[in-house]
Design goal:
Layout lengths: L12 H7 L68 H6 L3 H7 L3 H7 L3 H7 L4 H9 L5 H6 L3 E6 L6 E2 L8 E3 L13 E4 L2 E5 L3 E3 L13 E2 L4 E9 L6 E9 L18 E10 L9 E8 L2 E6 L15 E8 L4 E6 L2 E6 L12 E10 L7 E11 L2
Parallel strand pairs: 2-3
Antiparallel strand pairs: 1-17, 3-6, 4-5, 5-17, 6-16, 7-16, 8-13, 8-17, 9-10, 9-16, 10-11, 11-12, 13-14, 14-15
Length: about 375
């Protein structure tokens, strides 16, 4: 990622594997060496991701996450009561029993006035219909369709209930990253109108920091993939550093990113940053080719380019990126529109051998200006 990112230093690899690390924020660069285990935790900034146990076999394609809350069904209107007789005069002249029968209907008006509760029931969950329709949408993004990635393998409208805070269990998301022992403080994650809220310092991934397991599938670099995130922030301060990125599970404390023919302990991996906020007025996406023997990693990164309009990040935006193994190319989209691409040497051929997971962080550039990241939805597509 960029030079502002500071590297995480981890304890020994063994400590990482047994301690199940993972902080809410990703690493950052600063010119220092990358730290321990498999260090280099770079939130789209500078560091690589770290060490996890070998990834389990990808979950079936139908594990597509959890849809948002559905709206409450509108209350059924009550039947109209018969209108009272319009002419009281005939009532007076009727036989004695008739008035009693005619005077019974007064209860009907009371029944008619009862429905005020119905509108309240209908209007109570205003955002629920939008949440339900958002996650129910089955459209294929134009970028994914153009590459032939038409099979949806992840479709999640996340909530706080879908996050494992201790790394255990089968969840869509997990707090923290494997390369750090830090955990987000209580209250970091919440749910607002069916969307996940994440306070500054929070960070989640789709794999457990303990063993690399998870409810959502990994994305095979050999086949290629497309990912997208619908995200907004509570403010536009330049200190806010939201990060949406993708890392290979092979880059872990066991150094599963060392391949035959390479020098001993020589690691290679691709880091794909879908978007980082704060470093530019608009969109910023990068791809990194990392290599080396820990802790002396080096990288080749595509040049930073300030592209697209200035973003009001308090509004929801769709950030997307894809890896095409045939062309060895990464492409980015902003709100459904093509914005940039990169190829070799920035996109390494080793990415074809690796399997990727998603990361989302609410970081800071150092001033710790409070804010919230709101993740409304994230999806992934692969070839049929």
């Amino acid at each position: 990622m960029h030079s502002l990112r500071a590297s995480f230093l981890i304890g020994s690899i063994g400590a990482v594997l047994t301690a199940c690390g993972g902080s809410g924020s990703g690493g950052s660069s600063g010119g220092g060496s990358l730290g321990l285990g498999a260090v280099g935790a770079m939130t789209t900034a500078d560091a690589g991701a770290g060490a996890l146990a070998p990834a389990p076999a990808p979950a079936p394609a139908d594990t597509t996450g959890t849809a948002g809350t559905s709206a409450a069904a509108p209350a059924q209107p009550l039947a109209s009561a018969p209108a009272p007789a319009s002419n009281p005069a005939p009532v007076t002249s009727a036989p004695p029993a008739a008035p009693a029968a005619i005077s019974a209907p007064p209860a009907a008006p009371a029944t008619v006035s009862a429905p005020p509760a119905a509108p309240a029931t209908v209007s109570a969950p205003p955002a629920a219909p939008a949440v339900a329709s958002r996650c129910a949408a089955t459209d294929i993004p134009s970028g994914a369709r153009a590459l032939g990635f038409t099979r949806q393998v992840i479709n999640t409208c996340p909530t706080a209930a879908q996050i494992s805070l201790d790394g255990k269990g089968k969840f869509a998301l997990y707090d923290g990253m494997w390369w750090s022992k830090d955990r987000a403080p209580s209250g970091t994650y919440g749910t607002d109108t069916g969307a996940l809220t994440m306070r500054q310092g929070g960070g989640v991934t789709t794999i457990s920091p303990l063993d690399g397991s998870g409810a959502l599938p990994l994305l095979a670099g050999s086949a290629g993939f497309y990912v997208e995130f619908d995200v907004r922030l509570s403010g536009n301060d330049a200190d806010h550093w939201p990060a949406l990125w993708v890392m290979p599970i092979e880059h872990n404390g066991k150094h599963d990113d060392v391949y035959a023919g390479d020098p001993p302990n020589f690691e290679r991996w691709m880091e794909l940053d879908v978007d980082e906020g704060g470093a530019a007025p608009g969109w910023l996406g990068t791809v990194h080719s990392w290599s080396g023997v820990w802790p002396n990693y080096t990288r080749v990164r595509n040049p930073y380019q300030v592209l697209g309009p200035t973003l009001d990040r308090t509004q929801s935006h769709n950030f997307a990126a894809a890896f095409d193994p045939k062309l060895l190319k990464v492409t980015w989209w902003l709100d459904g529109q093509y914005i940039n691409e990169a190829g070799a040497p920035f996109v390494p051929d080793v990415a074809r051998k690796q399997n990727f997971y998603l990361l989302m962080n609410a970081q800071t550039y150092g001033k710790n200006v409070p804010y919230q990241m709101v993740v409304e939805r994230f999806r992934a597509f692969a070839p049929p």
